[in-house]
Amino acid sequence: MDITFKNVDYIYQENSPFAHKAIENLSFHIPSGSFVAVIGHTGSGKSTLIQHLNGLIRPSNGEVHIGDFRLTNDDKPKNMKELRSRVGVVFQYPEHQLFEETVAKDIAFGPENFGVYKRDIEKRIKEIIPAVGLSEELLERSPFELSGGQMRRVAIAGVLAIKPEILVLDEPTAGLDPRGQKEIMEMFYDLHQKENLTTVLVTHSMEDAVKYADHVIILNKGTKYMEGKPEEVLTQQEALNKVQLDVPEMIEFLYAFEKRFGLPIPFKRQSVKQLADEIQHAMKEAGSHE
Amino acid sequence: MNNSLIIGQYVPGNTIVHRLDPRTKITIIFFFVIFVFFANSVLSYGILTLFAIATTLITRIPLRYILKGLTPVWFLIIFTFILHIFVTKEGSVVFELFTFKIYSGGIIQGIAISLRFFLLILVTSLLTLTTTPIEITDAIEDMLHLLKKIKFPVHELALMMSISLRFIPTLMQETEKISKAQASRGVDFRTGPVKERIKAVVPLLVPLFVSAFKRAEELAMAMEARGYQGGEGRTKLRQLKIESIDFIVFIIFGCVVIGLFVTRIY
């Protein structure tokens, strides 16, 4: 499903002394099947943006289109539930939403609400449990007995069990250990490719953005600051520093390398190993000229 | 969700009313609430209403915002009014429909009681609108210090109050966050049969309790880690001080009260 924002404003507590604009005149288009990273400093409107994606809030002005669903200030789709079954949202610290007696019941909660058959739910759970890196023994345990990392995985499984077409992730790895962060991001990326999902990732991590996203939107104070391919946007050190963001480490390294040795190596999302080869090659060539 | 409800809400500002000593405000409101019941004529109600409206205007909080925020109270006020119209049977008959008779006494009583009610709510919400919860608890702790003599745990009570006040907005935020997360998993809190809607509260309440208990434990731990111990010998960061403006306000309020009693005599 495509996602389109047209001149969207969102104002919290409109018509009160607390009114404040969280999003201002935001327009963009995300084609179906892309992996988009939304990046911005705290308070830039990222979390407000994603709540539009499944109709939790509606724009104060402007229009939001999610596939055939249209959201405006005075008009909402008749079938909100269907929209929510097709757009899965993993919120920040999703483990706070666990409540059932057992892990299996909690994962089944979403699909049950959307009217999936019991048999299908069981099948989905069997598929998802290994995918999120849990073992089946946990299924009959209480989610509150698990470790923080396991709870996070259960909560993510609960959203994936809905089998959404658009997957929205709000800092899904915040507060996990580095190993867990990597595993979970790899899992989402795998799923994105296998199931041909449209993925919207809200993140602080430039590394994740550069590694997984094919499109980047940078927000600042509720407006769109930059947009484009990661290799174009995330290399603009000066512009990013202006809004309290840094370029990914790899790009920082390339700039430092160029400054030191005078050898420009263009960034085209190479892996660390490819980059090492390129550097070796460039150094050799520079040496042979002398 | 209930963003328009203003009971207990604080609206920051820097007006005279905001800067008054909280003890002054609490004392004046305490006596205002009592004196509202002494009003018995158009003039006395007029004086009290004038005082309340003038105070509201000084706070610079838009009157419309306050009136809208009191929506649930409006129902109560209108209900009282209607009840009085139908129940009171004094004065002359103003209006007759079949066996229903509406008396002039009923209308007057209805207006008086509703106005009384409105003034009470308006003035007490002005207190919370212009005073931070911390100031209110500080003031209460200070005003109750006599009770310490009979070993009443005033400080602990004030601490409990400020902690619970402090966590109301946090819990509200948490509620909103969790209800959004569950709505994304297909829970419908707004429509559907009542039975379903009651069932929909469970996925909201369980996580809320879990996090509240966790938070309480963490707070206790953090307080202990910083060597917190109750009232005895503890100094204050915020000192309450009565200033000349407080005296002026007391004098103005005194005039209002005298005016009120003068109208009662004549």
From TrEMBL, chain A:
Alphabetical UniProt keywords: ATP-binding, Cell membrane, Membrane, Nucleotide-binding, Translocase, Transport
Coiled coil start-end: none
Bilayer disposition of the protein: Peripheral membrane protein
Record GO cellular component, one term: ATP-binding cassette (ABC) transporter complex
Gene3D superfamilies for the chain: P-loop containing nucleotide triphosphate hydrolases
UniProt KW Repressor keyword: no
Molecular function terms, GO-annotated: ATP binding; ATP hydrolysis activity; ATPase-coupled transmembrane transporter activity; cobalt ion transmembrane transporter activity
Places the protein is found: Cell membrane
UniProt-listed Enzyme Commission number(s): 7.-.-.-
Residue intervals of the ABC transporter domain: 3-246
Enzyme class: translocase
Domain of life: Bacteria
Location, primary (coarse class): membrane
PANTHER family: ENERGY-COUPLING FACTOR TRANSPORTER ATP-BINDING PROTEIN ECFA2, HEAVY METAL TRANSPORTER
Described function: ATP-binding (A) component of a common energy-coupling factor (ECF) ABC-transporter complex.
Similarity field: Belongs to the ABC transporter superfamily. Energy-coupling factor EcfA family.
Subunit structure and binding partners: Forms a stable energy-coupling factor (ECF) transporter complex composed of 2 membrane-embedded substrate-binding proteins (S component), 2 ATP-binding proteins (A component) and 2 transmembrane proteins (T component).
Designated name of the protein: Energy-coupling factor transporter ATP-binding protein EcfA2
Species name: Ornithinibacillus caprae
TrEMBL record, chain B:
Pfam families in the cross-refs: CbiQ (PF02361)
Topology in the lipid bilayer: Multi-pass membrane protein
InterPro entries: ABC/ECF_trnsptr_transmembrane, EcfT
TM segment ranges: 28-53, 65-87, 107-129, 244-265
Cited PANTHER family: PROTEIN ABCI12, CHLOROPLASTIC
Family to which this protein belongs: Belongs to the energy-coupling factor EcfT family.
Protein name as catalogued: Energy-coupling factor transporter transmembrane protein EcfT
Organism: Ornithinibacillus caprae
The gene coding this protein: ecfT
